[in-house]
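Methods — Computational structure assignment.
A single polypeptide chain was analysed. Its primary sequence is given first, followed by the predicted tertiary structure written as structure tokens.
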Amino acid sequence: MNLGTLEPRTATVSARAAARRHTRSWRPLIVAAIDVLLINLAFFLAWYARYRLELGAEVAVENYVEWTTYSTVQLTLTAVLLIVFRLQDLYRLRRGAGWVDEMGLVVNGTLVGIAIMIVGVFYLRPFGLSRLIFVYAGIAIVLLLGLARVLERAYLAHRRRRGYGLERIVVVGAGPLGRVIMQNVVAQPELGYQIVGFVDDERTEDIGRFTALGRPEDIPDLVDQLDVDEVIIALPSAEHARTSALLLSCAERQVGFRIVPDFYELSLNQVDIVDVNGIPLIGLRDASMSRGNLLLKRAIDVVLSGVTLLVLTPLVLLPIALLIKLDSPGPVLLRQTRIGRNGRPFLFPKFRSMYQDADERLYQVLHLDEARSAGRIFKVKDDPRRTRVGRWIRKFSLDELPQLWTVLRGEMSLVGPRPPFAHEVEKYEEWHRRRLDVLPGITGLWQVSGRSNLTFDEMALLDIWYIENWSIGLDVKIIVRTIPAVALGTGAY
């Protein structure tokens, strides 16, 4: 990238970055203010349910209490809950915390607050109180605050998809440390980061959507000219002098910075950090893909693929096979040699979606390749070699269904990286080969994050993130997200 072509706009950029930081600083106060309104609304609904709707038991005339009588209790509950939420850091969540994490704090804080109020109010007994009103209030508070957070996350996700509200960062270093940052940004868009690009001494080619901007020494100019909020320094530990110089440059320009620690070539996703009175103790987490986890994953694969085959064979697979046979000459199934776990080849079945001479006509469509991957994967959106039925079954990924048999045989999993051809693996960079550490899958993280609309480097980053962060819950999440992705045909060709 030629820095001389960038227009100098330091003052404007600084003002915009400062405005974004100012907006983020106000968010906790805005969320807390909304919580105050919702807590009071929830208490009113609880009163209405108990005294007007008489839920739980009939209210005798002498036990009826007006809502205004509860005003002191209501305001006290609001104050108690805000204090509890603040002590739990509900309004200062770590970046990337999920809705479930946030709701855990809401539920726990509400239970604690309600318990405090029950003990205090029934000890003082200022008037005839209904115990049920606190039960109803607790339920209403959790529901309203939970709904508010769902709406907030949906709104933020919408803005971030449109490019608003993102924190613009530059990554220093494109080695293993830098790629860890990139793969986490690709895999977790909810983090709210936008990587403007990266700088590196050796790598001058882009990595997926991430642009090569030059060398680390260019950071001062890039920060001034590219509206950067934060610089993430991912250099090896041996580069400590260079790192210090970069930190000084960022501090002089009042730009945030973070350092990615280099733990002796260990994957950062394997590092476990325990805080003991402010002292970080560093160790290694148990491997996600332990023998027990692999057995559990295998059991799920067998059960789900077996049941799916029993259900779909008469309803979907046989009709598709008949349509392919009637549409064009050639076999119904294709068996391709793909590369599986640890580089072992296996036969990969698919419903045929192209004409018989598709391989011979490959040279005719090579110039149409849209994967931008230097031959590591081949994708053409409107491939003229597809049959009429082939266009339809590939649109909805129905050509992949025969791979359920491969899952039963143990050569594939329901969830995992896409199995490559041997000639694609030959063109891999060393870090790409990490994709081959696990069984390939029918679906995977990249399939539900854009599918063919992603570059190969982005696919690899997502696959590696999946391997390093695997869990049964993640597999379930990917399978659930696959359903709408397939139904809508998003990025499928």
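Note: The first strand starts at residue 167 and ends at 172.
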